[in-house]
Amino acid sequence: MRVRAFAKINLSLRVLGTRADGYHELRTVFQSIALHDTLTIRASRGPFRLTVGDPACPANETNLIWRAAARMWTAAGRRGAPRDLAIDLEKRIPMQAGLGGGSSDAAATLRALARRWRVGEAPVRAAARALGADVPYFLEGGTVLGLERGDLLYPLFDPPAAWVVLVLPDFGVRTKDAFGWFDRFGVAADPRVRRGADTQVGPSINDLEAPVVARHPGIGRIISALHRQGASQAAMSGSGSAVFGLFPLRRDADRAAKGLASASRRTLVTKTLNRQNYQTLAAT
Ligand code: C5P
Known about the structure:
Elements: E1 2-18, E2 24-47, E3 49-52, H1 64-75, E4 83-90, H2 101-117, H3 121-131, H4 137-140, E5 143-148, E6 152-155, E7 163-169, H5 175-185, H6 191-194, H7 209-215, H8 217-228, E8 233-236, E9 243-247, H9 250-260, E10 265-271, H10 275-282
Bound molecules: cytidine-5'-monophosphate.
């Protein structure tokens, strides 16, 4: 069984405050993109095995795939650690990039194993919430407004399809660090947010951008360069380090990707994926 785990970008990400549980209260618009990892799941005698092509990606219990498999095993009423199962991960989504790769891999594992072991929807949703704030989004896909930790979800109308240029610096940013930098940066919450002015898909604003750019000024330069190349929107995705630019035409996206690639950053062109396509493609 092969399943695809699609990446996301955040069309906007507003941080409204800190929460008692240590997380931040968010108002974010998630958007699926066609870039994906592929998981191959098969029966294999013995203890659960996870193999990953990319040596930078852990293939042990710290990987969310492993933790998702353990949760589904228990939810299916089985004892002990999962066994007689092997998952091979073909990693294409860059890590520590703000593209949700680890969370999407986890959601893909939950979906696939729930089907295989006949686990109901409620335990799958509970497992998703427990595994990470972004994981529930990946059970949904498409364009979705996320409130609270980003896990109270409201599906939105599909915005027009767009080509997405991803610019990937040669360093990553840890999500925890980005939120910590935000706290120390001391940005007052934008009053427009409380009036709900940007709950719809509008110009990209990411409140984590300024604190991350303060440490990594190159990210700011990439965003400006994408605007100069004609992107209709450009912003850092999530907690970075990836930056995206949206383009209505493929040839403009290709030109921008070519112009922005350098020794210290890689670029790739992908496209937005609406909810219907996400749900069809993620299920096969
Ligand atoms: O839930 P997840 O493990 O993906 O989150 C990683 C880290 O990002 C959290 O430990 C927290 O520091 C930060 N975070 C946050 N507020 C959110 C989501 C994530 O502070 N809404």
